[in-house]
Write a structure and sequence with these properties.
single chain, 304 residues, alpha/beta, Arginase, Chain A, eight-stranded parallel beta sheet, 8 strands, binds manganese (II) ion
């Protein structure tokens, strides 16, 4: 019972209510909508998410997008860095995917003395643009490049005096919508990209096993960045930038539980939930199931 007294059923959860990195800012309402869903859902049982909200104004509408993203990411990096240093495993709910710059810069900074951070990026898109190659100008298409040290110094410097990630420790899964410049970038840096046709051919369990091997090889731990648009839009319509023919959730769950159960998993980020585009609460439900899997493992860890 002492484990209960220590509060394993209150899971610190970081709400990144920012959509400034996206063309459609609707993802800023993702954390609030998900909170409402979770709190009103009997299936969440006694597991309460202890929400940590971002300070007011960081991502205000009158702030230039790059500055809004940079300010949000600086705060987020401080938060994930502190939690990681305290032996916690940060749980982040976005927000558009630009918040990844903050999440992983902070975790990488905290791990600097123990070793490199691996990152498994599950997403329909590559998010590997730089300001020079972007077609849309949207910053949520740039976080992977920024974490690798390419892009605006306002983003790349958040990790500290070195880049957050090394290309050989990064793996993309579910890719199916990208611009040629992004694939050129990935090839030039030797980043493993497991595209959706390969996922369909080999099965999601098999490709995630390969991805896990990549992000754990030579690293002190890994992060999971899950863009909900990785899933088929029929199952997850409530996302910022849907792309057809995605991952099927049912096949994904087993492998996902394994990834989150591994003690080497140092932080988890769920992004791009856009409640304004959701239908029949499908995407909230899917996100709830994914968070529940991640949180159950966290409870086990804390209860030991
Ligand atoms: Mn993304």
């Amino acid at each position: 019972m002492s484990a209960v007294a220590r509060g394993p059923n209150r899971i610190p959860t970081i709400a990144v209510a920012c959509g400034a990195g996206a063309r459609d800012p609707g993802c800023k309402d993702g954390p609030a909508a998900f909170r409402q869903y979770w709190d009103g859902n009997p299936a969440s049982g006694d597991v309460r998410l202890a929400w940590q909200a971002m300070p007011e104004g960081l991502c205000a509408a009158d702030v230039a997008p790059l500055d809004a993203v940079a300010r949000t990411s600086r705060w987020l990096a401080e938060t994930t860095c502190k939690q990681t240093e305290n032996g916690r495993r940060p749980l982040v709910i976005g927000g558009d995917h630009s918040c990844a710059v903050g999440t992983w810069s902070g975790v990488a900074r905290a791990m600097q003395s123990s070793g490199p951070l691996g990152l498994l990026w599950i997403d329909a898109h590559m998010d590997m643009h730089t300001p020079e190659t972007t077609h849309s100008g949207a910053i949520n298409g740039m976080p992977v490049a920024a974490l690798l040290g390419y892009g605006s110094p306002k983003l790349t410097a958040i990790a500290g005096d070195r880049r957050a990630l090394e290309p050989r420790h990064v793996c993309l899964v579910g890719t199916r919508s990208f611009e040629p410049e992004e694939m050129v970038f990935a090839k030039r840096h030797g980043i493993r990209v497991i595209q959706m046709d390969e996922v369909a051919r080999r099965g999601i369990a098999d490709v995630l096993a390969e991805a896990h091997a990549i992000v754990t090889k030579g690293t002190a731990g890994y992060g999971l960045s899950l863009d909900l648009d990785a899933f088929d839009p029929v199952e997850a319509p409530g996302v910022g930038t849907p792309a057809p023919d995605g991952i099927h959730a049912r096949e994904f769950f087993d492998a996902w539980s394994g990834l989150t159960a591994d003690p080497a998993c140092r932080a988890i980020e769920f992004v791009e939930f856009n409640p304004h585009r959701d239908r029949d609460g499908k995407t909230a439900r899917l996100l709830g199931t994914l968070v529940a899997a991640a949180v159950r493992q966290e409870r086990l860890r804390w209860a030991v």
